[in-house]
Fold this protein.
Amino acid sequence: MSLPRLTAGAAPADATLLVEGAYPYVRGGVSAWVHQLIRGVPELRFAVVFIGGQRTDYERMQYVLPDNVVHFEEHFLMESWRSLAPRPRRGNAHAYTVNDRLHQCFRSGYFDEVQAVFGEIAGLLGRDGGLTRLDFLFSGQAWNQITDSYRRYCTDPSFVDYFWTVRTMHAPLFDLADVARRMPATRTLHAVSTGYAGFLGALACHLHGTPLLLTEHGIYTKERRIDLAQAEWIKDSVDPMASTLEPDVSYMRQMWIRFFEGLGHVTYRSALAITALYEGNRRQQLADGAPAARTRVIPNGIDVDRYRALRARRGADIPPVLGLIGRVVPIKDIETFIRSMRSICTRLPQAQGWIVGPTEEDEGYFRGCRTLVGNLGLAERVKFLGFRKLEDVLPQLGLVVLTSISEAQPLVVLEGFAAGVPAVTTDVGCCAELISGVDEQDRALGEAGAVVPIASPMAFAHAALELLQSPPRWQQAQRAAIARVETYYRQSLMFDRYRELYRLAMGSTATPQPQATAGAGDGG
């Protein structure tokens, strides 16, 4: 397949989307939103820069790039540095002094100097005579900084674990510096998360003076905290006598968390505008150090007309089918849905649970879920359907369900509403707002389903059964769902808001100035 590439001398892209681990290789909320945005603003020319870990994890594109994507490139951050042969070198003392100043800014919790120091780091990172990949991996200056930080800060006993953690953590940043220097010509950068994608945007913003926009669906640092708390690849070696801010979390886990917090701080301070999907996430961004004046809320939007036609395909009866549409990964807590189906099927024997989404992202978790289905005797009731077109699935559902432990503003709930399907969700992200409304006028539309606590199979089963076994209540929830999505979540509203944001960015060439904000985080 031939992929679009900007050639030398070609007109610049209007906006370059920086995407980590999602579009166009992974289906799901963020990827669907990126595809929707590109197609919904056809007058703009987009470039897409994809960042992943290893190429083998992203072998096939799940989306066809729209015609207004004029450039696509992909980079895999875990493949380039491990095969390098050691080459002893001295290293640039000044570069390591600046690097240490940046880490000290993060450790101090005061970020009035971050922007200026990061601007200097951006000019040094990956540049000969600055701070190169080989310097980081093999220089005496790097060794001295790592050993000094270990002695001064590390509370875990293993220097070997600390050394390789620092290497693994920071080595991808040199790839990002290379990518940033070769960034295709563009009028605006638009990162779809903090993390590595946001850091890439911050680097390119400082190197080229290109304005950076940031959109967060979930809060990246919050999701990484959840992932890292559960990660089995991090070795825990907690010293019970050590005094740490989080004595039940090993220093290595804390270091990874602080690293991603640091990437987030740099991105927030480099971005001209920072958008969240709902007010709760905007407040979290402020707590994580985002400058308040740059933040705003732009909710997701749905092509209501596309899904309205699906309502006519529904039968007169309420289908006893609960559909969980999403990836089979731990953060979606598929196991809670499976356990709830045991109780639901006891009281409603004809009930079915459909899990509609890719299963290959975490094969171990998928196997565990499939085993749980068998152990609970649900093999005939709970089905893993893999990827299916929503148009084929939604008319057959009685409820859209979501058992996630972390979400922002899940598109699938809005898509279900537009197709006339109420929802039962966990109390995450803005799900309570989607079900019950944001303000008095919105709440007057009624409840579009039910919200239950996280990881509560019995509460989930009870809420689902109350809707499925009460046609008047289900029909009222359906009316509220349709009214809410048609009034507040039309995609045309979202497109207009992003058009205005792009106009703002394209009219600005100034790199954001530093603002003093309290916070915490460091990468070592």
